[in-house]
Amino acid sequence: MKFTKLLFMVFVMIVMSSLAPTRATVVRGWGIEEKAACIVTDLMSCLPAILKGSQPPAYCCEMLKEQQSCLCGYIKTPTFGHYVIPKNAHKLLAACGIPYPNC
């Protein structure tokens, strides 16, 4: 339990120190389509599901679907990547009906 609390506190500190939102851009066909802002703090409701492997709340799935184009960026960022790669992250995405991205 202490480890989970420590991990959560570290995650919150990292997130709060990197609040600058980014935008994911997807190129389809001839045009460029801009997607939702990549704001990792919007995914805080997903943290218990990632840490414990529990069922994600509906709000978590909504935010993940909205930021689906951001997932590769999160995976490639060392600050967040270790939260997205574990098997619980795979379970979380599957529970929300989102395929794990191929980056």
From TrEMBL:
Protein name according to UniProt: Bifunctional inhibitor/plant lipid transfer protein/seed storage helical domain superfamily
Q: Which ranges form a coiled coil?
A: none
**Molecular-function annotations in GO:** lipid binding
**InterPro entries tied to this protein:** Bifunc_inhib/LTP/seed_store, nsLTP2
Q: Which domain of life is it from?
A: Eukaryota
Which CDD domains does the protein's record reference? nsLTP2 (cd01959)
Question: Sorted alphabetically, which keywords does the UniProt record give?
Answer: Lipid-binding, Signal, Transport
User: Which terms under GO biological process does the entry name?
Assistant: lipid transport
Keyword match Transport: yes
